[in-house]
TrEMBL record:
<keyword id="KW-0012">Acyltransferase</keyword>
<dbReference type="GO" id="GO:0006654">
    <property type="term" value="P:phosphatidic acid biosynthetic process"/>
</dbReference>
<dbReference type="Pfam" id="PF01553">
    <property type="entry name" value="Acyltransferase"/>
</dbReference>
<dbReference type="GO" id="GO:0003841">
    <property type="term" value="F:1-acylglycerol-3-phosphate O-acyltransferase activity"/>
</dbReference>
<protein>
    <submittedName>
        <fullName>2-acyl-glycerophospho-ethanolamine acyltransferase</fullName>
    </submittedName>
</protein>
<feature type="domain" description="Phospholipid/glycerol acyltransferase">
    <location>
        <begin position="38"/>
        <end position="161"/>
    </location>
</feature>
<keyword id="KW-0808">Transferase</keyword>
<comment type="pathway">
    <text>Lipid metabolism.</text>
</comment>
<dbReference type="InterPro" id="IPR002123">
    <property type="entry name" value="Plipid/glycerol_acylTrfase"/>
</dbReference>
Amino acid sequence: MNRPLRYAFFALIVRPLMMIVLGTNVRRVDQLPQHGPAIIVANHNSHLDVFALMNVLGLGRLGMVRPVAAADYFLTRPLRRWFSTRIVGIIPIDRTKARREDGKHPLEAISEALRQDAIVLLFPEGSRGEPEKLAAFQSGVAHLAKRHPDVPITPVFMHGLGKALPKGEALLVPFFCDMFVGQPLTLGLGKKELMAELTDSMTHLKDELPVESW
């Protein structure tokens, strides 16, 4: 990872974009993890989602932040690969393989980042869905919780970025972004209980939006 370029990109481009061009309102920002290891799970409607979360965490925590992203998309072209790995600092996960060729667990790269005290950004819907609509969550977060039972998982619901830069669009439309930070999920839950608590938490966070916004 190119740390000087990464800090310059977020300080000079991402922060002005999120704070001036789009605008960001965050509820309960103090509930975001102050340090790693930690996992933040959020809904996913736009490529801007990861930049919005990294901006809210601030430059002080930027060195700890590692977004999880699809290797089969972000590693396919040289420039996209360089930007994703050297500037954004993604943890690439191949969604097409149940196990790596070397026999390691498919989530091992995330586990390694957590062992190095990273704040991992995870989008359990798997990919960008329809703008401003929640899709069903995949169970990868439950597998991570089982591998790292002491790592807190904080849910965040985001609204607005799916309209600012929806999937398939290249032109940015200025649109205000709301972020609602929930309480960390209960530690030590089984897969079924954790997925139920995550879904319930995200639904309650979504319900904080004014009715007319939907």
